[in-house]
Amino acid sequence: MNPFADSTATIAAIRRREISSAAVVEFYAARRERLHGRVNAIVTPDYGRALEAARRIDAQEGSASGVLAGLPITVKDGIHVAGLPSTGGMIEPALAVATEDAPNVRRLRAAGAVILGKTNVPVANADWQSVNKLFGRTTNPWNPALTAGGSTGGGAAAVATGLSAAELGSDIGGSIRVPAAFCGLFAHKPSAGIVANSGHFPWRNDPSPAAIMAAQGPLARSAADLELLFDVLCAPDGLDGRAWRIELPAPRFERLAGCRLGVLQLPAWIPVEQAILDAQQMLGDVLAKCGASVSGVEVAQTFGDLSGYYRAYLTHLHCVLGGTMPPGARGKAAAKMRSYDDPFLGAVADGLEAHAGLMLEMLQVSLQHRAAWEAVFADVDVLLSPVCNVNAFPHDDAFFYDRKLIINGATHPYYRLSAIPALASLAGLPATVFPTGRFAATGAPIGLQAMGRYLDDRTVLRFAGLVEAQIGGFV
Questions:
Q1: Would you call 151 a catalytic residue per the annotation?
Q2: Which residues of 319-349 are buried (b: 16+ CB within 10 A; e: fewer)?
Q3: Maximal CA-CA distance, the chain
């Protein structure tokens, strides 16, 4: 059995009765037994119940097994799975057992998915590394000295190591996209509002209109897998499902020759590792030879130098995150942020100290930015950009806001790794991550992201598939 087969191939083999879902579960369980000490990815295994579910599916005939037909997958720790803990990397597992599945877990199960267990995260899902005192550190499958990313780092490591066919993750500041890029995977952050974001800890169990930047979505080993899983997940949240139906626009193109590709030009204050820029240039050159129209895209006329955009993101984010903190803790954290004399951290403090009026203003700002992107996507179909400033980096346990990264020889504040992911998050735009076939000097894969117009999820997913067909995919 090939541990790195994509989901579509595994499903086809199960349907043809060449292999059983139960056998795939047992195979993945045996691989975790052998490899867990190296990557520490699946931290709450549930192979007993998974095997029972797989055997039930194996006993079914034809379409009764669902479109996923017994596919074994994992779920990020923070997303509720009935009977398993949602610890957020900080609450003792026995005190954090979920009593019901999150909506997206229910949809995946109904489609035939088998849940193998839950994967590691950073404390409060709030870092681009996945380490906590409960479960320890997840390492990058390509180089254990490097992080697998976060906050869906355990899930990315599990899929990249062949411990799971796919992962359900979540993203508000790159938490799906960064780990996918660091581990060489495909991943999709959906447009706001088309995939449920409830059933998640920390934050909430029920749908929240305030959390329009938060998204749940799949990580996988091929673009086809993303489309398959996205089709299962794309549905209204909560009571809206009684009446609302989602019908997304078709892809804007079917061939690379019909694609208008924009390459995002970033301002100087957002430096990017040269290896990533080189991979982006390489891809642009390849796609141009395939007939795509490739052009640089300056967004300064629409968004200035993006500093105001990023401040709005940070304020909005911390309006939401600060809402779960006691008032005294919010005030203490805000004072700490202001002590750095950094205008971006001042925006963090503003969010932590927010009143209701500021939260409403931030919601409006997000919608205004979403509308402003329409002018950009009138001229291009897809916007190509780095996923974040850097490739997978060494583990760092310093205080979050004291950490630094060296980018092209210059020191850069660690927390600003959210500046590029924020572009899609603040406006609720879809973004698909894919590997480029290139590697950093550390041996880590290099990924890029394709951003699309609001609700053009099928366009960016199709783009990733066409790129995969042209340059190759997961290794």
A1: yes
A2: bbbbbeeeeeebeebbeebbebebebbbbbb
A3: 64
Nearest one of 3, 326, 313, 12 to 158, comparing CA atoms: 3
- Give the C-alpha separation, 133 to 122, whole Å: 9
- The token duo for 147 is 């992080």
Is 404 among the residues known to form the active site?
Answer: no
What's the pLDDT tens digit per position in 336-376?
Answer: 999 998 999 999 999 999 999 999 999 999 999 999 999 99
Q: Where are the extended beta strands (E) located within 158-258?
A: 167-171, 186-189, 215-220
Structure confidence by residue, pLDDT tens digits, 390-418? 999 999 999 999 999 999 999 999 999 99
The answer to whether the CB of 29 falls within 8 A of the CB of 73 is: no
- Classified as helix, coil or strand, 156 is helix
Candidates 151, 191, 366, 418; catalytic one: 151
Residue 130, token pair as written in the block? 């996945």
Of the residues 76, 86, 130, 170, only one is catalytic, namely 76
pTM for the complete prediction?
Answer: 0.97
Active site includes 175? yes
